[in-house]
Amino acid sequence: MAYPGPGGYTWRMTSSVSVHLHGRRVILGITAGIAAYKAAALARGLVRAGAEVQVVMTPSAREFIGAMSLQAITGRPVREAIFDAQHEAAMGHIELARWAELILVAPASADFLARLHAGLADTLLHTLCLASEAPLAVAPAMNRLMWANPATRANIAGLLGRGVLVWGPAEGEQACGEQGPGRMLEPDELLRRVAGALAGGRFAGRRVLLTAGPTREPVDAVRFVGNRSSGRMGFALADALRREGAEVCLVSGPVGLETPPGVERIDVETALEMHAAVMQRLDALDLFIACAAVADYRPVGPVSHKIKKNADVLRLELVKNPDIVAEVAARSRRPFCVGFAAETDGLESYAEDKRRAKGLDMIAANRVGPGLGFEAEDNALLVLWEGGRTRLPRQPKARLAEQLISLIAERMDAQTTTEDS
Ligand code: PMT
Questions:
Q1: How is residue 48 annotated by DSSP?
Q2: Backbone phi, then psi, for 137, in 5-degree steps?
Q3: What is the value of pTM for the model shown?
Q4: Domains in the chain, start-ordered, CATH in brackets?
């Protein structure tokens, strides 16, 4: 299905998303922004998935999209006016706030977010956000400099702190012609996130960052130092977390795996690239899982040409890479940190040493060697945390991932309870 966008630009819905939202009640808030035209496709996707959708627009959103098309798609008149005699005779805004199981504001402009953060209630949409107990998600869309502005950063940090789900923005070409973060997430992705949030999994509303796969450290133009990690364990964890409602970002080394549905994936090659990708994404993170087999060392000054095989003995000088998980765990405001330990012997003692040395909340130790840990379809884990341990027996990595994240959820909840008491 194609929708005309501004300037004759046409946006096409892939319709590859299969989600079921039968009878779920969603308020779709639309604010003023060029991305508002995509809200029609989003409304269509929600309706097709079976949801009941009530569109609520801010007055200036009308400049970007007409209410008639949204009414035709959802089968409900669009609401906009805060002082609406027809509905307000019976306290319509409160009734609507109670009706919603989820409020999604897409696109959410910088102005809308600022007012939401300030607790203003000067539009029907803001009033509903204040008056509803339903989960509230926003999909920001704005120019990259507006997104980077300290005022917007502070508003977003404050909203995240209050439990608002902030979905996106994505990076890419902007309507203004600039390049950077600020694009609204695509309707398909928002649809998946709505399904995740309404499913109410154990990780609903939590933001998770994972590393997975190997790193490749270049020696020359064609050779590298690497390892046998296939990425399977990390990808299985990303998939399990997503299905439990988490917002998942996966930083992956070079692997031949498909991205699990609904997971944001960042591809990197070297340990330094992985380090940079992780450090940029620590904002408002609840959980960090380091499953990647990061090269501890990299060749000093890789050469740009192919080294000739003239010498009988070739010496490679190596320099230490930054320890990504230790650096995340050492930060003052940090997520719950889970590491892995790949050991050929002394599994428990080496893993516990690593847990303490890197300051981790939990470590999952696996034996590695021929047919074990790396590359294999299945795995077994010994999981250690302060004052506790448990064994997860050998099984497919997908099932193991489900058990490990359930353990992580328990420990995270236990930590929150201790901090609160
Ligand atoms: O990818 P698969 O084929 O499915 O295999 C899965 C796996 C065996 C790779 C996985 O289960 C695993 O054990 N991953 C961690 C491998 C590893 O590098 O372990 P380590 O003991 O060397 O490192 C300890 C921890 O520090 C790990 O969490 C690692 O991600 C992290 N680390 C290490 C070095 C570094 N520079 N930065 C890091 O963050």
A1: H
A2: -120, 145
A3: 0.65
A4: 2-198 (3.40.50.1950), 207-302+315-420 (3.40.50.10300)
